[in-house]
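Hey team,

Sharing the Vacuolar protein-sorting-associated protein 25 run so nobody has to redo it. Sequence (139 residues) first:
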Amino acid sequence: LAAWCSVVLAYFRYHKLHQLDVLEAQESQLFNNKRIQRKLSTEAIQVVLEDLRKKGNLEWIDKNKTRCLIMWRRPEEWGKLVYQWVSKNGMTNSVFTLYELSNGDDTEGEEFHGLEEWLLIRALQALQSEHKAEDRKST
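Structure output:
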């Protein structure tokens, strides 16, 4: 089970994906090896996804559990990377926009550069809970 979780996270990381449609999953190259004609059963896929949810790497988008968000890094881990970058560059107590953090020239080359906004927001919320960031909404 741990191996499957690692494979799923590595696949999503490599392809920079964040969403999975469970109904399409069994036919995806992630769970279906057409060359050797083997695929993971729907039940086994559900077990893998549930384990990822328990570890904090998956959240269901809908109540029917047909679509989910897969986070190959948890928001806390992304937050840590952002905070390390801010600290390393002597920019604590500075104000940043979401755009500056995810798409700015200064963050080019950082792992969080290009991060989807919803995940960046969650990363910053994790930093807020540690009192390492503040949300300063424009007035």
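DSSP finds six helices and five strands in the chain.

Ping me if you want the raw files.
A.
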